Amino acid sequence: MRYCMVVDLKKCIGCYACQVACKAANATSKGIHWCRVVKQESGKYPNVRLLNLPILCMHCEDPACVRVCPTGATSKRPEDGIVTIDEHKCIGCRACMAACPYGVRHYYDKEMEYFPGKGLTSLEELGRQKYSIGAVQKCDFCLSLKGVQEDYVPFCVEVCPVGARYFGDLEDPNSEVSHLISQRKGFQLNPEFGTDPSVFYLPDY
Amino acid sequence: MELEKYGSQRIWGWRMAIYLYLVGLGGGCYLIGILFDLLFSGYSTIAQIGVLLGVPIALVGALFLLTDLGRPDKAIRAILRPSTSWISRGTLILGSFLILGILYIAFFVWPFASLIDVMNLQRVLEAITGFLALLAVIYTGLALATFRPLSFWCTPLLPALFLISGVSSALMAIGLGGVLWDLIGYSIETRSIAVLASLNIPVILLEGLLVFFYTQGSHIVEASRSSTHKMIRGNLAVFFWVGFVLIGLVLPFMGSVITKVSSLGNRENLFVLTTLTAIFGLLGGYLLRYLVVLSGVKAPLTVGGVMVLPNPEI
User: Fold this and answer.
1) Is B313 among the domain residues?
2) Residue B61 pLDDT more than 90?
3) Domain range holding B191?
4) What are the pLDDT digits (tens) for B120-145?
5) Residue contacts between A and B (CB atoms, under 8 Å)
6) CB A85 within 8 A of CB A117
7) Angle at Cα B51 formed by Cα B50 and Cα B53, nearest 5°?
């Protein structure tokens, strides 16, 4: 089994619901976004194009971050291909961040408050209980929140108002994600790095 | 897309540059000390200064790495994955070098001095620690060269450049150490200072050549082109041209040439010149690492082979 996410760029409206849901669910610190929507304009008026590109950990088949990790804190689960970080093993060397071609790993180096001097929100308090300063963190397909169970989907998939995200088993040729990738020519970001990401994108045309 | 739109990596900064520099410098000093002891008779002062400087400098460098870690208290875990991780390999190399280097020095100052003669340990330890010192210097470049998304670092020229720069800095540091050695009452011959300067002349030339190829060779990939642009034309250009090229290469080269030519002249002037050359050269050595680290640009994201946007980490 290999969990895979497919993002339909034609459907994505760049509403940031996935980004907000991820943050609310995982209680990540200020400035840390495991999932985010990057917007990029191109072309010249009147022939312009706006791309909404949701980015998260690609849970690569051959993850560069796992290779460079000196402690084994980053590993890929053989049973489902999800790449995880064991915060207790991480020493905060950030080699994984340098090795990741997608810039989706985050270093939690200091506690920051959303409302300085006015106390912590309940979400911030939760985050401080969950995460250790000095460690790297990233998306785990909501594994730590939901656990792998039948028909489970990460929160970002659940909340997408236009249904632009799909989640399933890439190794199952009959799964929805496999069909979408083959029928609509799904592609991966930066294939030249040879990491074989498990997040695919469907073209926006 | 214009090159300015790509931001520099923010994963590592000046502390990583100091770590890379001091380990390269310390390893270089030690290596030169050992080589002088093995290959050149009559230069025992250089050998002693090199070995005595090398270990503590590398140790301070390792401390800078520790302070740069998010969790220095768990640093020992860094040795667990040498099969795939260059950080692990480097930690093992550096750790072994420091432990055996300290042991090697201890044999000369401790009551164990007789032991080293009896067991003929000196040559064995010299060979092992010298090799480890060489690996430590090269490793500082290899550690960066393994990160493929940072194409400016991902080149075999970088370990070579750091090795040559480490050796050059070490030659100047030993020269400075010799002056200090003389100041505290131990005499150093001017011919020792002159031989260090003579050796440094081709090394500095080679370093300049490598920097030229390093920057010129980076024009193929856009992220590397952006890195070079930042370094030689962008916000780091002053550090590169004034700090590294002028102060770190040209002045030490001139200083080494003058030292070589005038080594039989006035002893005080020679020491002043050696000190200035070393200060400039050591500053240049650090700036090289600083510039390389801070100029690193991550590869942009390519979407369907069509759109290109800066890496979201920035």
Assistant:
1) no
2) yes
3) 3-308
4) 778 888 999 999 999 999 999 999 99
5) 129
6) no
7) 65
Q: Is A69's CB within 8 Å of B85's CB?
A: yes
| CB proximity under 8 Å: B 5-64 to A | 9, 11-12
Find the helix or strand (DSSP H, E) in which A201 lies. strand A199-202
B159 assigned to some structural domain: yes
Chain A residues 61-90 with a CB less than 8 Å from chain B: 64, 66-73, 89-90
Q: Is A93–B70 a contact, with Cβ atoms under 8 angstroms apart?
A: yes
> Residue B306's Cα: distance from chain center in Å?
40
What residue of A is the nearest CA neighbor of B68?
Answer: A93
Q: B212 lies in a domain?
A: yes
Domain count within chain B: 1
At A182, is the secondary structure helix, strand, or coil? helix
Instruction: From B190, B169, B171, select the one nearest B272 (Cα to Cα).
Output: B190
pTM (2 d.p.): 0.93
List pLDDT tens digits, range A80-106.
999 999 999 999 999 999 999 999 999
B134 inside domain: yes
pLDDT for A14-50, tens place per residue? Answer: 999 999 999 999 999 999 999 999 998 888 899 998 8
Chain B contact for A190 (CB, 8 A cutoff): yes
Is some CB atom of chain A closer than 8 A to the CB atom of B293? Answer: no
ipTM of the complex: 0.92
Provide the CATH number for the domain around residue B182: 1.20.1630.10
